[in-house]
## 1
Amino acid sequence: MASNGFGQAFRFTTWGESHGPAIGCVVDGCPPGIPLAEDDLQVWLDKRRPGQSRFTTQRREPDSVRILSGVFEGRTTGTPIGLVIENVDQRSRDYSKIADRFRPGHADYTYWRKYGIRDYRGGGRSSARETAMRVAAGGIARKVLGEGVSIRGALVRMGEKTVDRARWDWNAVGDNPFFCPDAAAVGEWVDYLDSVRKAGSSVGAVIEVVAEGVPAGLGEPVYGKLDGDLAAAMMSINAVKGVEMGDGFAAAAKRGEAAHDEMAPDGEGGIAFLSNNAGGVLGGISSGQPVVARFAVKPTSSILIPRRGVTEAGEAVEIVTTGRHDPCVGIRAVPVGEAMMALVLADHLLRHRAQTG
């Protein structure tokens, strides 16, 4: 299986399966001399960790990360950084009934057709369990970017429910189980997702990730566009079906005078943008404004409502997916989206320095 890594100057490669003994990754290209400890990564992993509320999978994984290489006396050495997280709460028996069955909405069938073999225990390599290592690697990327770059994510839509942007408050994001920036909407979201969960179903979501303090000039104008790499990064997250930058698809409904970001002198010899419809990227290169990406996550495929599927022998069957699953996988996708933003920005920052000094 190829394509387990992402990035160029700053690259990470993940390994491991949902129900294997451990998951891990190797981060290449991290500059030397950066202070780094396990606690620097654990703070981000704790945001993604399962079992923190009734609205996420009840799999109990502490997700304690260990640094195996690439750090000496508290600082990076410039050599590959090895990270590992032990899997401690696998329940493979939950999947024994679907060992020879293809579940609708999952990668079961396509993996089998490609490789002729598949790990049916929690989806194996296709499981969202892999994203824990992206979050850990993203913690290193944040250190490369430095404190001047802030990356924050929020859930802006859950199924039929959307936030009121007039009530947007970043301080509210950490005070509810949904990473919702609209505190007034949380109560309604609780009732909504409770009803979905009790019905054995699931809903999708839209996540918005904003990076502030990004310097102008990151990205290449043709095939290495910053927004192109961000789109690829977000699309690589499990269950993501769409990505947009800035206004995204809404730009198609606007006239030119409303869609384009006007500029004016900032009074200090520089340029000020009067809006940010472009999401901080022009011609594939960062403009210095906040970089805004949004991605849509489909409803969790593992549900308790019977669905039609087939066996490896081609027989029709009715499938109910038991086990522990998120009624809205988009909730825990928020820290994953933040990590992918950090990883792409760190990669482009180092690429930019290599080309322009």
## 2
Amino acid sequence: MTYGVGVRADLLTREYPPHVYGGAGVHVAELAAVLRERIDVRVRCFDGPRTAEDTPPGVTGYDMPGGLTGANAALQTFGVDLAMTQDVAGADLVHSHTWYVNLAGHLAGLLHDIPHILSAHSLEPLRPWKAEQLGGGYRLSSWAEETAYRGAAGVIAVSAGMRADILRSYPTVDPDKVHVVHNGIDLSGWARPEGAELDRAHEFARGRGIDPDRPAVVFVGRITRQKGLPYLLRAVAKLPPEIQVVLCAGAPDTPQIAAEVESAVAELQRVRAGVVWISDMLPRRDLIAVLASCTVFVCPSVYEPLGIVNLEAMAVGLPVVASATGGIPEVVDDGVTGVLIELEQRQDGTGTPLDPDRFVDELARGLTELVGDPDRVSLMGVAARRRVEEHFSWSAIADRTLAVYEHVLHG
């Protein structure tokens, strides 16, 4: 596949370095880097202008319009979207990521008569708890997303599970327009440290209260309903006392879930040792240090289109114990790179386990059995790294993304 020098794609995103708090931001940063080697890529993002010193050329950051100060968060988002829409002029296609910029992509496609492609990292109908966070703004975000999906020239789903969710949530979308392109992983940036670097990693971990010489389960994720953290905290109470639990968890969606998690963690710390909560967002090097000082990664999500955190942990050589939901089974090879925990869920958009007690018990059992088998942990860790190398490199993801561009542009 070849592209003329003049072909230009504008990528629209809520997050872009240094302001990244979730998987979508990681995805856009890595995708833009590899696409930039092949076509003209412009990135348009939130959180204000970037400095030339720490940002590649072709990146434009937007501030919220001053007149929307104090407005509902969804309205503030739309204000940034309108500014992006005008600036897409001159692009051959526009590619938006998440509802935050889906409206900008949709309007840019109409205004400039170019195809709009969107990547589905999550779906508003499957995150009804966001009404707690946005109030009436959740109805606006849902409207923007649905409008964009209905009008898109192409949709990229980050997993086959996500593709099924899209077609179920938006049944008028043409299935032929929905393509599966997994998330990727920066293999050079995510790897297990060795030698002096491993010593430094262990030293950092000790400074954060983690004992690298003891078995440990580690969780990384935002404090949001979809990540299933309250279920994990219940499972932690059932783990053998020698197992440490490291929670890299911050950026709560609402004060209510923040208080719920804070109370549960405090109770666990009262009754057992080795419960470490790291609430600040760690830079990559320090997060790798934490991962490399632990034994098993855990992902108890009730909604997870794919789960970049699982790829990151596997790249560092950790096996993963995760709920069998969404795109996770496409990442974690059950019995080879980790253990999948069966999860029967309500189909009302909340993802609530039908039998929460059983899910908690199975999660605790899976963690206990794997952590207690060092040989199995070692074999699975090696297999986990090999799996991300073979299936989730960004070069392969770029090839598949460009194939979607080619299909949309030239049929």
## 3
Amino acid sequence: MAGEKIIELKDVFFSYGKEWVLENINLCINKGDCIAVFGPNGGGKTTLLKILLGLLKPQKGKVIYHKKCEIGYLPQIQRNIHFPIKVIELVLMGLANSKKIGFLNKRKDIEKAEQALKRVDMEKFKDATIHELSGGQLQRVYLARALVSDPEVLVLDEPTSNIDVQARFCFYEFLEKLGNDMTLIMVSHDLSLSVTRINKIACVNKRLIISDTLNFNRDMLRLIYGEHLDHNCPVTPYFEVGKVPFINQNKVRGL
């Protein structure tokens, strides 16, 4: 049922050492949400995703999983990959609970991997090695790996950081086709994010501010860019107005 709670973070604090990387984080993720997460490098975005995934445990606060569900994860992709693995083998790695027969995958798992590749238009490359692929093609293969377990929630960390502009828009189109039932949480630096389903934007820089108006308000801009009122800066007018539009494929909201 759309709108039901899936994951909730309450008063979460996390540190790798003496200083907090995240502090007093409160976030509720509902079924069908599509959340874009923005923030500076080192601001805690990837740490936040890892806490949502259960890969890291907060020192304070709690993470509540309101329902048991599969979560797919697309990490940041490094382009310089030369490991001799085939596309189909990489996708099969997304089936963590798969049981092999000796060194062979079950036919059912292979069919699931092939279906995931078909879903992202990469089935004809299933026997290629991954170093033969372009950046955009490799990104789609990793997306297939995240989708092969039929997740209800898909978490993406900078999914378009290492691909060109054309491949970026194609990738956004693939995300758009995933359906309104899938919950998406995506970290990005791209303010012109073209996923039209986005219904919330979050800014993270140690603290978190979230908005469902699809505008960056003054507090969000200060959080991710700092104060810019004492010199001539392109960001300055938006501090004065108090909001900057979030741009998507079809319309501009805000100013």
## 4
Amino acid sequence: MQKTEKNTAPSKKPIIALYNYGGGMRGLLPAHFMQKIEETTGLHMADMVDVFMGPSTGSILNAALNIPNPHDPQKPKFRARHMVRFYEREGLHIFPRDSFRAFRSMIHDFNNRTMRIEQLGNLLKQGHYQQASLGRSLRALYGRSKLSDSLKSLIVPVYNIEGDALHPTQEQGETPKSPVHNVNTFLNEGGHAVWLKNIKFEAAINPPRPPVVDIYDAVMASTAAPTYFPCFPFQMKETETSPTKTIAGIDGSIFDNPCISYMGALRQHIPADRDLIIIVLGTGYFNRSYRKEDWNRFGSLGVVDPSNDMPLINIFFYASETALLDSFRNEMGKNLHVFNKSLVSGPYAHEYPNTDIDDASPENLRRLKNFFEMTLEENRSSFNEVCELLTKNYDAMHKIPTGTASLKQRIKRTFLKDQNQ
């Protein structure tokens, strides 16, 4: 799986991909990182990145930074600082304080034994946050923009819980008799991962036609975190002339991580003569180990009990990433840049933000900002390197000679002036 060493590095412009993790309100962490990158370089993220990837709250960020400005369609409508404000402003509308947390606490205090099953079922149905609140916030961001409108390549992962089979699709340049893609040869029925993607970077191999789907629908489905939001059904077409099909989508974080996005959605489009650089902005991780005595003591309900930090769910989210991470790192080598940090260990862990995705309290927003600043300082050298890589990528995209400092300074002055307006 490791790439063959080359005598000389590729002379063509590398392809830079940005992966933003899921994590609800913890999306403030990559939002802060991107704001800092934009302030440092004087450029928009969409000016410097070729491919945006990531599920759930990561898809909220990625999509927003790729919405065209209605007054200048070649430029993005939003900067990263707008997304910081989005989380700070909309958080309590999307996650009203204590509504779901109090419900879960009540259920587990009763330990699911003092109620009739029918009553418990009725209560459980009310456990979701109001999807309409999230919908209003996202509609204000995306309007009626289509996935095909994204300024740069955009990949939104969604898990479709319905569907009898994965249907083959034909990609650009293929004949009806040529091999088809997106066919699952191991499982031909039931739920399955769906990559909603608009691949448009230069020299991409066999870029699929972007499906006909609203960005709003794609992101609403990718953010439908189980136990927090209900499934989000939406309609899409493979092409303008294809029949309409319905996707019953839940959170892409169910299956997605940087390793899987790379292997499942991006790698097949990267030309052999191009380097791929992947920048990963995390939302804090909380993968824990468990002693066998504790695991056996949890029992069937305890492994999904929030009071135990839902150990089984925790394992499900991290298991595939731990299985693929070594191979992923070996293949990417020095072209992988990760900014992430544990939320459950370290000398200042008592000051870290809440691991829950739905804590939009002012105190937790403060902790998220502090956590970002701590992570930045611990990775300052890598951060500076990434800013330099992104600036060089912008230069290469726009055929700007290396070392044109005056132009970069002028861009930055203009950017900072716009920020203050």
